[in-house]
Structures are given as C-alpha cells and as structure tokens.
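Exam prep: given the inputs below (a chain plus iron/sulfur cluster), describe the expected output before reading on.
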Amino acid sequence: MIQRIPNLLGIYIHFPFCVQKCHYCDFYSLSIKEFQEDTKQIEKIFVERITEEFLLRYAYFKHFEVVNTIYFGGGTASFLSPESIVQIFNLFKEFFRFSDDCEITLEGNPEHLYNKTYLESLKEIGINRINVGYQTKNYQYLEQMNRYYNIFHYEEVLHNISSIFDNWGVDLIYGFPNQTFDEFKKDLEYVLTFPLKHLSIYSLTVEWGTMYEKLIKQNVLKEPNHMLQEEIFINIPSIINNASIQQYEVSNFSKKHYECRHNLRYWLYEPYMGLGPSAHGFNGKYRYNNYRNWYKWLKNFQQNYSEHDPRKEVAITMFRLCIPINLQWIKEITEEYDLFFDFFEEMNHKKYGRFLYEENNTYFQWYPDGINILDNLIINFFYKMDHLIINQKH
Ligand code: SF4
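Solution:
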C-alpha cells in the first residue's frame, strides 16, 4: 500500500520556457524564441534566481531534514543543462539530505530527450526518472495546436529513453478536434510497445485565456469532442489491457511501485517547496505561490504565505486517487473526519466504491463507476460540506 509521509519534503523547480507556445497550454511558459538572450544566458539567470529563491524559502522549510522527491518541470525543463542541474543539487544538499530512494524526475520534450548524450549525462548526475511530453504521434494534431515537433525526434525519443532509463513515462493527450477513437488508440498502443513504467493521459481542455480559446471563438478551431473524450476515458483501461499497468489516479497509470512519488505528494497533502515563476509551495501549514510572470519573479518573490483550510483541498486532491485511500490520512489532516466517513459510506452504499480493511487500517477505494463521474460526486460532497460549515457558524 502507498504510504503518506508528511515529514519528508519534495522540491519542484519550474523552468518557464518552451520552443514555442502550444495553443492549449495553460502552464506558465514563454516561447524562448521571443527573447534576445540565448538559452545559455537565460539558464544562467534562472539558476542564479532559483538559488536566491531557495535561500529565502528555506526559512519556511527548515524543520525538514530529508528530501525524497525532486521534480524539474515547466515549461520545458529539458532545456536545462546537466551542469545547471548539478549546481541546483549542490545547493539543496547544503541544507537537506536526499533519501536513499529519492525520486528525481526531469520532465521534458522530444526535441531534447531524443539525444542520447544528453540522456546519459542526466543519468550520470543523478536524474533517475524521465517523463516525456509526447502527446500524440499524429503530427497533424501537434501542428494544429502549434506544438513544436521534429519527426526525427519523435521517432527516436522513446527508443532512446528506454535504452538508458528504467523509470520513465509518457504524457498523452486525447480529444483533439476531429481526432477519432482509433487514432487515439493507435497513439496509446504505440507507446505501449515500449517498456515504459508510467503513463499520464489527459483530455484536451479549453482553458480560459489560451490561444485555443481565442481560436475557437474566431471559428478557426473546433472544441474538443466531449462525447468522444468520455468514451475514450472510460475505455483507456481496456485499451491498455495490461494487468501490470494500473490506474492510480484519474489521469495516471503505472506499473506497481512506479507511481510518480512526487505527484502523489500533491494528492496526499504532503509538503513541497516550489521554486520558479508560477510555482507554489506548502510547508505543511502555510501555502504560497509565485508570480506567474518571469520579469516580476526576477524582481521579487511573492511572499503571500497563508494558512490553509484543508477540507476542500483534501477532497479535490485525495479523491482523485484510484488506489486505496487510508482513512487515517484524512484524520491526520482535518477534524471533519466524520463528514468524509459518511460520504464514503454513501459511496459504498451506491456501489461507487468500497471499504477495504487491512492491518487495523480502513481504506476506501473507488470503483470505475465512481471514477467515471468523480467530478459530480465531488460537487455533491462540497454541497454537503458548505452546509456543515454554515451550520457551524450559526
Ligand atoms: S511544451 Fe508543454 S509547457 Fe510548453 S507550451 Fe507546450 S504544453 Fe505548455
């Protein structure tokens, strides 16, 4: 069973640059082409500023001794050179010890991760997990969404990663306008021909303020086909059709013991230090978030530490887990345990999930029927919680 470990820390580093901006992207990222500085200069400025931010944020995390996950994300973190990553490691190691099983992920794109020399250097310096934003092998959809690609990189990248790394995964997107079920199935079947350990499979969404939203309004692009997305979502486990790759979160699948430990910490309400523009952090009590703006971040770090009410957050995060949820975790986080327990009992009664009992622990686990309508169930839970909060106030 997965454990919740709130006394160990995770660190997330956000590198906010990409070759070009994908139309659907809601992450904070900028096209590196629009900058006068070259990549090396930008990287240097980034590492210097990350160092300053780390030294400032450390005051809120000094009660931690051990780091058990590090995640380089973005943007496109594979722009970072091994030398810069080592510099960042050395800084962290002055203040924290890395656990023996510390999971260190670099997330990147085919334009860098096809390169074997780069991959070997990453392995040499201690990166032990790679995640590649593959999205689709159907290049017309990458083009439609302004996603940078080079066919040679796409052909090589999975072969090359799998020849060097054991622990690696792929991100896919489904629901591009005009995409068919069979086209998505081909994408999924193709990546499954490689010995990957992890799969993140996301449905394309129209985020407010993105170019995709604008292009839909201008009738240039169509919205995703929601009916097809639902059909795909329900059928993903049967397409995977591999007992050793299991769904452990709504959009995430892995082989046993290869769940992304860093991402689990968000769903398990564990602490993490976030560094870089738009990154946020949580030290177990206080949360903060950074400016979603490179220039502002270079000038200033947002110091908006605020205490958080975990009740709704636990529902938004932990409920997404498809693995057994230990009810003890909820007891450790919120006093509103009874409300959660009643909800799980109702879900059990309606056959959306079930209780499991093991070694003095009670767990709740969703059935696929519950996962398929999870958003509605969470809204229903919030309604009950709001009711309770109003009654408590009176
Ligand atoms: S590569 Fe990733 S982070 Fe960059 S613009 Fe595209 S989706 Fe966003």
